[in-house]
Design the sequence.
């Protein structure tokens, strides 16, 4: 009977503690942990392992920011969010940043008032069909039943695609990828459509992956990236450059293996020296210490390492880099100069 | 305040507001009202301040924008170029559809199981007990998901119907196709259709009613009306002369003959589903999501209704059963004529709350991708527009209206049964 | 007179009943094949049971218990039985069952959750098995609301103590001031004093005490709560907290004060009229908007608040039923003794009404407990949410039935035992004549 008031008092204590101060960076530093919004589980991007430790490509971005700001890549509170709750959680200040396969769009930028700090994965909406159907193009899908994950830009793209091509379809909206996969495998839908990366990672875990093809048609651009609130540019800079550091490091050849020796003594490459704090005061400009970038790289490695570990050859998924190769190798990943 | 508008004649002291029972209740009420208003003002003030910080305003104009998403299960016409409001309306109708279907099935199954649980047949009673306990003690969300999984995994996909020696064939003389995308049943078609009656013009609430259906209903109702007149006449003749004229064929004829004539005039025929391309075409498609939700909700609620029915039957005094037995009635007659009518009085109030629960549980439709109002207004529309406040408030209002209407209707029925009983 | 008698003079030997009415055959005849319809029903039921079991038993028992991933499971199945169809891969449960029970709760602190659960049962004993438990256990029940949150969330021991001190202030303040000032002023004064203590004084006192005598246990963030534990915690907190609110609402609904009644009826009907999922949307999307700018407390606490409000409305209706079931003589008797409203409620009405309502309260609890699964829809990793997260691990992607079977069994065990208890209570409370 007495619990109500006690909980009320607790709520009140939480209330007093939660009053936001001026800058997110200061908040995170004083709190000692980074609150990072992730998915409730997408293969390769974020999922808890058997020990309850979150792993994945998006999780690495959170860990990079925590390593830069707090010096400890494990000082992250992962907040699982759904497509519905992610933006509210961010705008209400429940999370400091969102790293959750979120597509950068104009309305999310301007209307929902978020800042996308970069694109950590260039994706596009694709289609997967069983090989036995003999379909080679999405335009041959007239009358097909299509499984889609709801709550994303996917269903809008799909409606537009079929309407503009003047073909009919039967949408089957589904909450989670896992259920969509089940329906698709049982033949309850002919086609499964979502971001091509998720199609590939889903297919990799099938009993017989070779029986399914991902069509070459990509019907939309889905630049996925970490997001912060509008109006806190210092914090946006910290997150942006934490991510850019990973890309720049791959370009400069810094890996988690050699970052120790490189940060111990200056090299003859001025950009590496600036990034690792031997020259200039890049860290100070961001409100961090000079070792920030070195800590990111020793914790999660560079962009390429993170990709290989979570999505690429070292994982069960085995995605090719594709658009996400460095610009020097014909891809789109490109970091502005650290200068 | 009301306490001060009517001051007493004798000297009034402020302490009387608390200690004088004449004033105390007024004081308490005034305090409660002020507290309520202050609380409401506080909430509204916070909301406005917060929305201001987020740079949002409360506006319903978003609902007249293009929804640009598709809905598979729809009772009325809709495409992705319609407004969000139209999508919400389609979702509302879907909610009502599954709720009505669920309530009917749950009642039928529940009454049956409730009676069978009291059966003298040991194994039937045990099987029913296991069913009731299994469904009552596992969350409905799990049942919905499992029902969907069972349908998907156990039924053949349309692909299995293809080829020279298909693994699956259509049932009932090639008229019904049972697939793991849903069940395709023949649809009623009219070659000389009267067209549709469009209500509410081009607005989001536009509602097309088939004139064919109306014509058939009118003819049927008129037929039943005339048939009941014939019965009354027969009753009257029986009272006057003692002989009852044979009228059953007249009564049947006045219902059936006009009905058949109307069907013939309208050119009634059945449209059978056919496998074309990826899917079956033609016929009425009852989607898996609807069937799974409907099955899970009605079986889950039926388990509760069975318990209510059982308790209601046990509440009827055993003397009633024995008395009816002494009159020489068969046990099925005792049940339907003596026990159930009396049990009804005990059964109806808890039934109302189970119907309400079923309707509210239908909001879990998103788990299987059935586009009810939670899936449209509270799902995709909310995601695409980012207007959480407006969407959630409208969603709650819609459910509140449905719930209150159900409880009003059922309470009215309950009162009627009570009066009859007295 | 001859000795001819038409009446038997000696008793016949008692004979065995016919073989068809005793033993297995007799039982079967009476209970399974008493009529043609019954025989058909029996055969149908037997066939149905056989069909279900023939599919379920091989799947359950011809299964793989040790594997690192689903693909490994499939390899083992192929090697052992030649096909992957019809065999369960329980290895996923073997791998993740602790997570599904405790969520992200630190594994070296699991004992705290277990202890809290044991304490819950112990604290409920005086209420549930009143005649069988020692009287002293009521002190544990009183202390439980402070110990349980401390065990779950951890932190300094001074936090729960300071919360308890506030209640002590109310209790002793009311008792001692009543003699001096009259009951109403005493209550108001001590409540204000307690509020003052909680809001202003306790924080520095706790901080001071913690620095001088730092007794405490490791703090656990509510974000780390998850799995089946979360369902239990949400259910217990919602029911525990909603009980007093429900009592007040039920009394308000019965009161003659028009405005108070209108507020209570409005609240109850509103909550009961909307689905829980919309209230959870409010918790996850809107509660922050309704509270003063800048306030922010975590999602588990927000969900607890909404679940509590939700169960309070149902609780109010259960207790209203209990109040209505009391004979009017009890109310009149209390009045005739000269008890005032609250005295009558406390001493006469509530003890009886609550006792009548216990089965209803238990079934409300079962309902709330099952409804906690809905939090997975707003992204909390309860046991269903965790099943999604587990399937997002590349090792276990594609696994389905095993996880849901495990969850269903968990819920069934807990809910079934509670409903059995509720039936036992109903029988115990039954005073009428059964046939």
Sequence:
């Amino acid at each position: 009977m007495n619990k109500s008031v006690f909980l009320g008092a607790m709520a009140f204590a939480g209330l007093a503690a939660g009053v936001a101060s001026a800058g997110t960076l200061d908040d995170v530093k004083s709190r000692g942990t980074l609150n990072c919004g992730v998915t409730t589980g997408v293969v390769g991007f974020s999922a808890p392992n058997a020990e309850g430790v979150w792993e994945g490509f998006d999780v690495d971005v959170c860990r990079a920011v925590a390593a830069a700001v707090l010096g400890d890549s494990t000082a992250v509170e992962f907040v699982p969010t759904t497509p519905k709750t992610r933006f509210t959680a961010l705008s209400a200040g429940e999370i400091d940043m969102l790293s959750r396969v979120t597509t950068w769009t104009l309305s999310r930028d301007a209307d929902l008032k978020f800042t996308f700090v970069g694109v950590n994965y260039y994706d596009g909406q694709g289609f997967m069909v069983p090989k036995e159907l003999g379909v080679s193009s999405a335009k041959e899908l007239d009358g097909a039943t299509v499984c889609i994950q709801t709550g994303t830009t996917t269903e809008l793209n799909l409606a537009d695609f079929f309407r503009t091509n003047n073909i009919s379809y039967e949408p089957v909206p589904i909450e989670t990828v896992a259920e969509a996969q089940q329906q698709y495998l049982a033949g309850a839908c002919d086609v499964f459509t979502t971001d091509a990366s998720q199609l590939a990672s889903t297919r990799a875990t099938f009993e017989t992956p070779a029986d399914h093809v991902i069509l070459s048609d990509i019907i939309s651009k889905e630049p996925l990236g970490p997001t912060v609130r509008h109006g806190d540019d210092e914090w946006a800079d910290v997150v942006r450059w934490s991510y850019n550091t990973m890309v720049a490091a791959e370009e400069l050849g810094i890996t988690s293996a050699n970052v120790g020796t490189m940060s111990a003594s200056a090299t003859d490459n001025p950009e590496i020296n600036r990034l690792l704090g031997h020259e200039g005061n890049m860290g100070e400009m961001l409100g961090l210490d000079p070792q920030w970038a070195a800590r990111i790289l020793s914790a999660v490695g560079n962009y390429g390492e993170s990709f290989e570990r979570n999505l690429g050859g070292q994982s069960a998924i085995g995605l090719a880099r594709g658009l996400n190769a460095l610009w020097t190798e014909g891809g789109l990943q490109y970091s502005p100069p650290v200068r | 305040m009301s306490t001060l508008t009517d001051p007493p004649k004798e000297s009034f002291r402020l302490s009387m507001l608390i200690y004088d029972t004449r004033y105390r209740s007024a004081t308490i009420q005034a305090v409660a009202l002020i507290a309520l208003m202050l609380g409401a003002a506080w909430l509204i003030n916070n909301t406005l301040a917060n929305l201001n910080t987020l740079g949002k305003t409360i506006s319903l104009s978003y609902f007249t924008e293009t929804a640009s998403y598709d809905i598979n299960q729809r009772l009325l016409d809709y495409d992705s170029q319609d407004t969000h409001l139209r999508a919400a309306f389609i979702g509302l109708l879907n909610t009502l559809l599954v709720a009505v279907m669920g309530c009917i099935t749950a009642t039928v199954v529940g009454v049956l199981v409730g009676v069978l649980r009291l059966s003298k047949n040991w194994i039937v009673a045990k099987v029913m007990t296991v069913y009731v306990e299994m469904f009552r003690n596992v969350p409905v969300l799990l049942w919905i998901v499992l029902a969907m999984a069972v349908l998907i995994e156990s039924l053949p996909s349309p692909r299995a119907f293809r080829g020279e020696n298909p693994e699956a064939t259509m049932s009932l003389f090639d008229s019904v196709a049972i697939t793991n995308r849903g069940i395709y049943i023949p649809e009623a078609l009219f070659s000389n259709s009267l067209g549709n009656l469009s209500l509410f013009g081009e607005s989001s609430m536009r509602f097309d009613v088939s004139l064919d259906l109306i014509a058939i209903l009118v003819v049927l109702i008129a037929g039943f009306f005339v048939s009941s007149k014939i019965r009354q006449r027969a009753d009257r003749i029986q009272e006057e002369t003692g002989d009852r004229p044979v009228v059953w064929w007249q009564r049947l004829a006045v219902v059936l003959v006009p009905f058949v004539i109307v069907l013939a005039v309208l050119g009634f025929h059945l449209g059978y589903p056919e496998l074309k391309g990826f899917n079956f075409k033609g016929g009425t498609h009852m989607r898996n999501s609807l069937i799974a939700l409907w099955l899970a909700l009605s079986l889950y609620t039926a388990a509760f209704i069975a318990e209510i029915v059982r308790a209601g039957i046990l509440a009827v005094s055993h003397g009633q059963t024995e008395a009816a037995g002494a009159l020489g009635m068969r046990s099925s007659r005792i049940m339907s004529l003596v026990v159930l009518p009396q049990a009804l009085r005990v059964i109806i109030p808890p039934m109302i709350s189970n119907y309400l629960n079923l309707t509210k549980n239908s909001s879990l439709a998103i788990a299987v991708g059935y586009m009810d109002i939670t899936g449209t207004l509270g799902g995709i529309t909310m995601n695409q527009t980012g207007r959480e406040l407006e969407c959630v408030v409208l969603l709650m209002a819609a459910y509140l209206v449905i719930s209150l209407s159900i409880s009003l209707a059922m309470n009215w029925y309950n009162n009627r049964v009570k009066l009859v009983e007295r | 007179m001859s000795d001819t008698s038409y009446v038997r003079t000696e008793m016949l030997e008692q004979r065995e009943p016919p073989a068809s009415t005793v033993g297995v055959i007799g039982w079967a005849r009476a209970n399974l094949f008493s009529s043609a319809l019954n025989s058909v029903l029996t055969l149908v039921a037997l066939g149905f049971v056989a069909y279900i079991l023939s599919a379920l038993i091989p799947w359950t028992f011809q299964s793989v218990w040790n594997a690192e991933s689903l693909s490994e499971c499939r390899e083992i199945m192929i090697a052992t039985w030649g096909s992957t169809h019809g065999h369960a891969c329980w290895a996923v449960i073997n791998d993740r069952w602790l997570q599904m029970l405790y969520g992200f709760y630190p594994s070296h602190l699991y004992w705290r959750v277990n202890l809290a659960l044991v304490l819950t049962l112990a604290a409920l004993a005086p209420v549930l098995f009143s005649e069988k438990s020692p009287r002293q256990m009521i002190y544990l029940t009183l202390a439980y609301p402070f110990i349980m949150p401390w065990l779950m969330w951890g932190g300094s021991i001074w936090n729960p103590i300071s919360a308890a001190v506030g209640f002590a202030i109310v209790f002793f303040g009311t008792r001692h001031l009543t003699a001096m000032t009259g009951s109403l002023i005493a209550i108001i004064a001590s409540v204000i004093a307690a509020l003052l203590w909680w809001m202003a004084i306790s924080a520095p006192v706790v901080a001071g005490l913690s620095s001088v005598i730092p007794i405490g246990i490791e703090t656990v963030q509510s974000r780390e709560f998850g799995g089946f534990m979360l369902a239990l915690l949400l259910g217990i907190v919602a029911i525990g907290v909603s009980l007093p609110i429900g009592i007040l609402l039920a009394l308000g609904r019965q009161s003659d004060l028009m405005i108070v009644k209108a507020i209570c009826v409005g609240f109850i009907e509103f909550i009961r009229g909307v689905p829980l999922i919309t209230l959870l949307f409010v918790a996850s999307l809107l509660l922050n908007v309704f509270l003063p700018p800048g306030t922010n407390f975590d999602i588990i606490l927000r969900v607890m608040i909404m679940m509590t409000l939700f169960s309070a409305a149902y609780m109010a209706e259960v207790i209203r039923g209990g109040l209505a079931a009391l004979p009017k003589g009890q109310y009149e008797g209390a009045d005739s003794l000269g008890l005032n409203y609250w005295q009558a409620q406390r001493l006469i009405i509530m003890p009886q009404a609550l006792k009548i309502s216990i089965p209803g309260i238990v079934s409300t609890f079962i309902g709330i407990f099952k409804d906690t699964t809905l939090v997975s829809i707003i992204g909390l990793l309860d046991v269903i949410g965790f099943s999604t997260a587990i399937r997002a691990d590349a090792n276990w992607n594609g696994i389905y039935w095993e996880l849901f079977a495990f969850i269903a069994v968990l819920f069934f065990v807990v809910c079934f035992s509670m409903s059995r208890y509720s039936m036992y209570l109903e029988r115990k409370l039954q005073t009428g004549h059964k046939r």
About this structure: The longest strand of chain A covers residues 34-39. The mean pLDDT of chain A is 87. Chain A touches chain B through 40 residues (CB under 8 Å).
